[in-house]
Design a protein that fits this description.
Strand content: under 5%
Helix content: 55-70%
Order of helices and strands: HHHHHHEEH
Subcellular location: Cell inner membrane; Cell membrane
Radius of gyration: 19 Å
Protein name: Disulfide bond formation protein B
Structural class: mainly alpha
Family: Belongs to the DsbB family.
Number of helices: 7
Number of strands: 2
InterPro entries: DiS_bond_form_DsbB/BdbC, Disulphide_bond_form_DsbB, DsbB, DsbB-like_sf
Largest sheet: 2 strands, antiparallel
Membrane topology: Multi-pass membrane protein
Shape: elongated
Length: about 170
């Protein structure tokens, strides 16, 4: 298996998803960092990308159209995570007087409100999303998540636009 093969790159994306979620769960359950609603939404995109990558690794499509479809779905998932992480970083860099007030927890929102309203409220952020609980090299967890998601997005985009060699199984015999 070559390092640039379609299946290998999707395997890397799958491993990155597993490692990212393992680290998030480690911080939550071992270090006691409770995820804010924006953190939960970032995880959704990472999990979705990992699911698409795992199906792609298992399926190992021959058709370039199917390869691009999987890459497109993974790209959409990573665009979601990048967007939410960027919003999170932006909230953390607001002046204290402009930070939105803390709202109810995600569990309450899901129980009490329609799904559309939950998405609107979570994506506008709240005061709890602006708190910095963990740093590494002077940067917050949402910043490092944004960097991680951008790298994964670049890999997904590369899978989407790259030239795939024609498989022997797809070539027509003349």
């Amino acid at each position: 298996m070559q390092w640039g093969s379609y299946r290998f790159v999707n395997g890397l994306l799958l491993i990155a998803s597993i490692v990212g979620m393992a680290f998030a769960l480690y911080l939550e359950h071992v270090k006691g960092l409770e995820p804010c609603p924006l953190c939960v939404f970032q995880r959704i995109g990472l999990i979705a990308m990992g699911l698409v990558a795992s199906v792609s690794v298992i399926h190992n499509p021959v058709s370039n159209i199917v390869k691009r479809l999987y890459a497109f779905l993974a790209t959409l998932a990573m665009i979601w995570s990048v967007g939410v992480a960027a919003r999170h970083v932006w909230l953390q860099h607001l002046p204290p007087d402009q930070v939105p007030s803390c709202g109810p927890g995600l569990d309450y929102l899901v129980d009490a409100l329609p799904l559309k309203t939950v998405f609107q409220q979570v994506l506008t952020g709240s005061g709890e999303c602006a708190m910095v609980d963990w740093t590494f090299l002077g940067q917050s967890l949402p910043f490092w998540s944004l960097v991680f998601f951008c790298i994964l997005l670049m890999l997904c985009l590369w899978q989407l636009v790259r030239n795939y060699p024609y498989s022997k199984a797809v070539k027509k015999k003349y």
